[in-house]
Design a protein that fits this description.
Layout (H helix, E strand, L loop, with lengths): L2 H17 L5 H24 L7 H14 L4 H20 L23 H10 L10 H14 L3 H5 L6 E2 L4 E5 L5 E5 L2 H18 L19 H18 L2
Antiparallel strand pairs: 1-2, 2-3
Helix pairs in contact: 1-2, 3-9, 6-8
């Protein structure tokens, strides 16, 4: 069942909750809002990727990760998950079977810098930029790739300037602790990702042509280490929600 057909079922679901379950008006308003947000997200995903047939399960996964990336409270996330499971059970009672296998992100987890080899390979080799729930997927995937390809520190990563990169030799000059310079190598895959980011996204972020930092935020300034931490938290939560 596609998203337009499912969205019609919202009124029936809310009527069921009100009459059969005697839910409060507050709960009904919250569930109505939660479901409309999900279907708005689904509609936007269909518009961005018209060639991809999004399923209920795949959209829910992306939606929950997007919510986590926005750092909503654990209480709000738990309510949204409860709403989706209740909606799934209601439809099942009407003979509509929807796959829904989601796991709540571990919101209390600290910076997930340490990842297993399997996790890293999955996130680098399987997940595409289009899968990521971020406004700047090429930037964030490039950050993830370079971090593990070069072994640089987070503070060193955000300090990389355009002139520090030799694309021909695939070398980045890093300014480390004590103002000591060293050179790190990166591979062909990282090179391709850098080129895509520099071609597709960085030009849209630049506000001042004098800004030379490689990785920029939405305001055109250099990323902070905390911003990189949030990017890694997004990758970790995405991995957890895939069930791998």
């Amino acid at each position: 069942m596609d998203q337009s057909s499912l969205s019609v079922k919202i009124k029936d679901f809310l009527a069921f909750l009100e009459i059969e379950k005697n839910c409060s008006k507050h709960t009904l308003r919250a569930y109505d809002s939660d479901l409309k947000q999900l279907f708005d997200f689904w509609q936007q995903a269909d518009q961005r990727d018209p060639l991809i047939k999004h399923t209920f399960d795949s959209i829910v996964r992306r939606y929950i990760v997007a919510l986590f990336y926005k750092k909503i409270t654990k209480t709000s996330l738990a309510r949204k998950l409860s709403c989706l499971r209740s909606f799934q059970q209601f439809l099942q009672g009407q003979g509509v079977i929807l796959a829904l296998a989601i796991k709540a992100p571990r919101l209390d987890r600290k910076l997930p810098i340490t990842l297993s080899i399997d996790e890293i390979f999955f996130l680098l080799d399987v997940i595409t930029e289009e899968d990521l729930p971020t406004r700047f997927p090429h930037r964030d995937k490039t950050i993830f790739e370079l971090f593990y390809a070069t072994g640089v520190r987070c503070a060193e990563l955000v300090d990389i300037k355009l002139e520090d990169i030799s694309f021909e030799e695939k070398i980045i000059t890093i300014m480390g602790k004590g103002r000591k310079q060293r050179q790190v190598l990166f591979g062909v895959k990282a090179l391709h990702m850098l080129e895509k980011y520099l071609t597709i996204e960085r030009p849209t972020l630049v506000k001042d042509l004098a800004e030379r930092h490689l990785f920029l935020n939405y305001a055109g300034g250099p990323l902070t280490t905390r911003s990189v931490q949030r990017i890694f938290e997004m990758f970790r939560s995405f991995y957890e929600l895939t069930g791998n």
